[in-house]
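Our preliminary data section would be incomplete without showing what the modeling component actually yields. Below, a chain of 229 amino acids is followed by its predicted structure, encoded as tokens that our downstream tools consume directly.
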Amino acid sequence: MNYSNINISYDLLIWIGLIITIISQLLIKITYSKYQKQENKKRLTGFDVARQILDKNGLKDILILETSGYLTDHYDPTKKVVKLSTDIYHGTTISSASVAAHECGHAIQDKENYTPMRIRSKIVPTVNLFTKLGYLSIIIGAIFDYRLMIIGVLLLLSILLFQIITLPVEFNASIRALKQIDKLNLLSNDEQKGAKKVLTAAAFTYVASVLTTLLQILRYVLIANSRRR
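Predicted structure:
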């Protein structure tokens, strides 16, 4: 058995995953930064955009709160709250409007009981448990018994499932965001093109996460196989 080839495979998978992650992060950072410097013509803040979208979709009861951090924006379905980071909440840029609209897209999904979103929410506790047990099994298996590593890999597949289910949730939220921006005339046609680029770049980070996780799982499979031999 050629162990040097196996080591090369391990290293190659690590590097491919790292490159994918770096590219996705650079893409969102560059795109976001570009349009975060461009003011929208109506001078609408992220809060303004979110409030208009929510109100027009019968979601006046949903609060919009400011939160700290960089791109920490999210919708909390349990508390029915849209949380926008400071730059997005107060920003009057194309990026601010895009991100705020995207989070409102999740709120609309919640209102309409969007199936992938419901499935994702329900499996979170199970995925968290399986993830902890999976990594523990892999660590112990790498030392004592490769069969425990196989069990760990199977448990880690729950992460991949979660990320795959997340893709339609995020893509759909962006589609809804762009439709709302156009329908409510929140951004001009040229600005909408910028908004689409911001949301597309953000979506790529989720695709990158799926690919990276897949490579990581494959790496563990190779390690388990080498232990077996």
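The chain has a mean pLDDT of 92. The beta strands are 63-67, 74-76, 81-85. Preliminary results of this kind motivate Aim 1 of the renewal.
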